[in-house]
Structure of Helix-turn-helix domain-containing protein:
Amino acid sequence: MIVYTPFWQTLEASTESTYSLINKHGISSNTLSRMRKGLPLSTVTINDFCRIFNCSVGDIVEYIPNDDDQLL
């Protein structure tokens, strides 16, 4: 299961806000809403966040194994 807890921590530690992400960087409010709900994001969006925060993917998402994950 992918979680966005690292994103919220990265955002809090930065000089950015959800307002600046939307109005300065063009991130949609729907994207932030999806993250709050733990819904999937595209790798393009994750790349955008890495560029904005000058960070790695691990600062945006984390994988936590879960029994509810799809069986492969």
